[in-house]
Amino acid sequence: MRKNIVAGNWKMNTTVQEGVSLAQEVNALLKDAKTNCDVVICVPFTHLTAVNAVIDQNKLGLGAENCSEHDKGAYTGEVSAQMVASTGANYVILGHSERRQYFGENNEQLATKTRKALDNNLKPIFCVGEVLEERENGTYNDVVSSQLEALFGLSAEDFGKVVIAYEPVWAIGTGKTATADQAQDMHAHIRKVIADKYGKEVADATSILYGGSCKPTNAKELFAKPDVDGGLIGGAALKADSFMGIVEAFN
Ligand code: 13P
Q: Which of 101, 128, 130, 214 to mutate to test the pocket of ligand 1 (most atoms within 8 A of CB)?
């Protein structure tokens, strides 16, 4: 059956030194903990190699927050999937709403990035989610369906390597969480869209994470929903104890 996953997204926070300390703290807390989920931290490119050196990847997975759609060459400032993989990372967040909003990422680019990630054995954590206006005008299911289409060029086997994260944009960093019922409804919708494309077996094996103001205080209720398989955590992942509080919501 599908895995439960709690993944941190550090975004553009921490220096390398601060990030290494935070990773060490999380790693130490996980060392003796019995957890019922996979735990991953996704960190800035600059931090990957140093963080990889201080964590036990049997207990704590490592990912990047983005990768280039290009393989190599004259793309100043870009970081390829192969470069990310060469740090020891195993995951990459793709299509985060902040990338879509501030850097104009679209389905076509995200389809290519997903291909590059998979070609380099990185597990994509593929983000979808509607903005407030789309929540309010009732188009949110359609918006998320069309975002998922970026993945639908994949074979069923490759799709099986992708983790989905539903992050309603209006809940990110706002302190305003989707209710557990709103999350469940969307996660069930996402699973149905996947089932319609790839069949029930693939859909049932897909981990779908919730993200958006997820905290130790609301994680248990969210994760108790049948189609919510964990969380993608922003702000609360920047403190080892609050991140672990969310991991423990699965205990
Ligand atoms: P917050 O948990 O800070 O709302 O961020 C969620 C998020 O964007 C994770 O990718």
A: 214
- Residue 189 annotated to the active site: no
pLDDT in tens, 69-96: 999 999 999 999 999 999 999 999 999 9
Determine the distance from the C-alpha atom of residue 89 to the mean position of all C-alpha atoms in its chain, rounded to a whole number: 14
Question: What's the whole-model pTM score?
Answer: 0.98
The whole-number pLDDT of residue 230 equals 98
Q: Ligand 1 test: best mutation among 42, 43, 233, 246, most atoms within 8 Å of CB?
A: 233
Q: Is the CB of 233 under 6 A from ligand 1?
A: yes
246 lines ligand 1 (CB under 6 A): no
Ranges assigned E (strand) in 29-152: 38-42, 61-64, 91-94, 123-128
Contact 108, 69 (CB under 8 A): no
Closest Cα partner for 244 from 89, 57, 48, 31? 31
In the predicted model, residues of the chain with pLDDT beneath 50 are none
